Amino acid sequence: MTRPIIVTCGEPAGIGPELAPRLLDAGVPFVWLGDPRHLQGGTDWTEIETLDTLPDQGLAVLRHDFAAPAMPGRIDPANAAGVIDVIERAVSLVMDGQASGICTMPINKKALKDGAGFGFPGHTEFLAHLAGNATVAMMLASTTVDPPCRVVPATIHIAISDVPDALTPDALESAIRVTHDALIRDFGISAPRLAVAGLNPHAGEGGAMGVEEVDWINALLDRLRDEGMRISGPLPADTMFHAPARARYDAAICAYHDQALIPVKTLDFAGGVNVTLGLPFIRTSPDHGTALDIAGKGIADPDSAIAALRMAWQLAQSRGRGA
């Protein structure tokens, strides 16, 4: 039996529902989990009761009724609980072995907080909670550039002024270990090569531009190298992302959000994929938001969503979850 990927509907007022039928171009088995009322008119869809059999054509829909219809570009707080319920249902299905992974369409975190008291910063933290408080990391991975650009920020959605305090030895070590293990398990890289960016310009230049590298980052990386990990760094972030540099590592661990995401979004804006590392199941997501300003206009670019769905299927094969 082929176990499909579950594509969650995301924010009903965003571009997720209109992208759903275009994901058929990915060429991998998937089902769309959401309220079919939210799909664009004219969408060819078939409701399914179980994940065992998919239709020969059109969009397979696992129905999940919401409180209200959806109007593109206009968030309805009544639908917030439905968005959360869909994520929980998708996790339950994949944890039960009925699906091989999850590809999540974008959510609007403020809408979920305002409409349903959502208590998590985003998808990643909520999925970690549903997986039993798993230790996770966020990877952004390119799909159209060679050598690939894979980045993992050790700190994520916090102010720059908070980064030096948040970038603790434990936080950086956790990001390195989760990335190392995921590259082996999910990406099939038997001996991963990791590059770790310094926090400061020029990686501190021996303490002249910052002391974190001298005070503790060097020692941490030395200890992990002594364990057998192939780690270079701490490296100046401004010289890590041109093609010859990327050829020397399989993933880069960065100190903070923009240090990691600016390179991958510059190199592969339409083909970037968000992968949650460290979960007991596969989860990917397109590297864009709900795009409320263009929702319903038929101009949303499906490339990142297609890339995310394809990567979810590929990673599931690496774990032996696809069939």
Automatic annotation (TrEMBL):
Location(s), subcellular: Cytoplasm
Catalytic reaction(s) noted: 4-(phosphooxy)-L-threonine + NAD(+) = 3-amino-2-oxopropyl phosphate + CO2 + NADH
Residue positions binding substrate: H123, T124, K265, N274, R283
Residues the record lists as binding a divalent metal cation: H157, H202, H257
Keywords annotated in UniProt: Cobalt, Cytoplasm, Magnesium, Metal-binding, NAD, NADP, Oxidoreductase, Pyridoxine biosynthesis, Zinc
Superkingdom of the organism of origin: Bacteria
GO annotation (BP), single: pyridoxine biosynthetic process
Pathway entry: Cofactor biosynthesis; pyridoxine 5'-phosphate biosynthesis; pyridoxine 5'-phosphate from D-erythrose 4-phosphate: step 4/5
Cofactor(s) in the UniProt record: Zn(2+); Mg(2+); Co(2+)
Main localization (coarse): cytoplasm
Record InterPro entries: PdxA, PdxA_fam
Annotated Pfam families: PdxA
Enzyme Commission designation: 1.1.1.262
Keyword Phosphoprotein: no
Role noted for this protein: Catalyzes the NAD(P)-dependent oxidation of 4-(phosphooxy)-L-threonine (HTP) into 2-amino-3-oxo-4-(phosphooxy)butyric acid which spontaneously decarboxylates to form 3-amino-2-oxopropyl phosphate (AHAP).
Oligomer status and interactors: Homodimer.
Note: The active site is located at the dimer interface.
Name this protein carries in UniProt: 4-hydroxythreonine-4-phosphate dehydrogenase
Organism: Paracoccus aurantiacus
